[in-house]
Design goal:
two-stranded antiparallel sheet; mainly alpha
Length: 279
């Protein structure tokens, strides 16, 4: 490779880096400009803490923020024990003849479109929850969180497994020399050493849960209310953006969806900043 080709490759990589860095800033600027009329109106605090009632001139997104956090946090609570157990099996306890195919299957699950999870939730999970609850539609926070837990579990399993794999081999050999069983080695040696990677995996999974649209849109019930229990219907911010239909592009109702986008954007940016600090 001559000097001219090297310079071309360097310029190409530099332009790709600039484009990848500029794209998030352009998206943020786009949402900020379109949501600026609401921000200028002095209704920003009311927008974050008020109720949603466009007919009465109220465009508050607080019920959607509560719904988003309820669904995402519950899904993370449900997914974590299963994910850490599967990661421990794949990285420490399970035999290689089973752990390798298991990892391939988990990797395959990460490529399944989220709409497929939504359809499975509607036709399989929702009737089960409806039957256990003894009434209602079954479209609720609990149903959405269960299916979202299945959705984010592959990401958590793979990240946890990689974190466990990075534990120094000398630590594992020392545990084996002391006669530790595979379970003891996992619980007493590998998990404490991999705790930072596990925490980063949790934050990434939470970010994916917050940003998912189809599961919340199809299974959560989309009721604009502050839920009082996990069996109540709720609407997430992402589902709200997809559901708001405003014919007048200059109306506050239309502008409000860009403020929802800004809230999601800033929330994810804070999580990414936390990841940078941890790593």
């Amino acid at each position: 490779m001559n000097g001219l080709q090297e310079k071309l490759f360097e310029r190409g990589f530099f332009l790709a880096a600039v484009a990848s860095g500029a794209a998030p800033l352009l998206i943020f600027g786009f949402m900020f400009v379109l949501g600026l009329p609401l921000l200028r109106s002095g209704l920003f605090v009311d927008l974050l803490t008020g109720a949603w009632n466009p007919a009465a001139g109220a465009y508050g997104i607080f019920p959607m923020v509560v719904g988003t956090l309820a669904i995402s946090l519950l899904s993370l609570i449900l997914a974590f024990p299963m994910s850490i157990g599967c990661a421990g099996f794949a990285a420490a306890i399970g035999p290689s003849c089973l752990s390798r195919p298991f990892r391939r299957m988990v990797q395959l699950m990460t490529g399944i479109p989220t709409v497929i999870y939504g359809f499975v939730g509607i036709f399989l999970l929702v009737p089960i929850v409806r039957g256990l609850h003894g009434g209602g539609s079954g479209l609720c926070i609990f149903s959405a969180a269960l299916m979202l837990a299945v959705l984010i579990s592959p990401t958590m399993i793979l990240f946890f497994s990689d974190s466990l794999d990075r534990v120094p081999k000398s630590y594992q050999d020392a545990a084996d020399a002391l006669g530790a069983t595979p379970s003891q080695k996992l619980l007493l040696v590998m998990l404490p050493q991999a705790k930072k990677g596990i925490l980063i995996g949790l934050i990434l999974a939470f970010g994916r849960a917050v940003g998912d649209t189809m599961v919340a849109l199809m299974i959560a019930g989309n009721a604009v209310q502050i839920p009082e229990s996990v069996l109540d219907a709720a609407r997430a911010l992402t589902a709200h953006i997809a559901l708001v239909i405003a014919a007048d592009y200059e109306s506050f109702e239309f502008k409000s969806i860009f403020v929802c986008g800004l809230v999601l954007y800033l929330f994810v940016a804070l999580m990414i900043s936390g990841l940078r600090l941890l790593s």
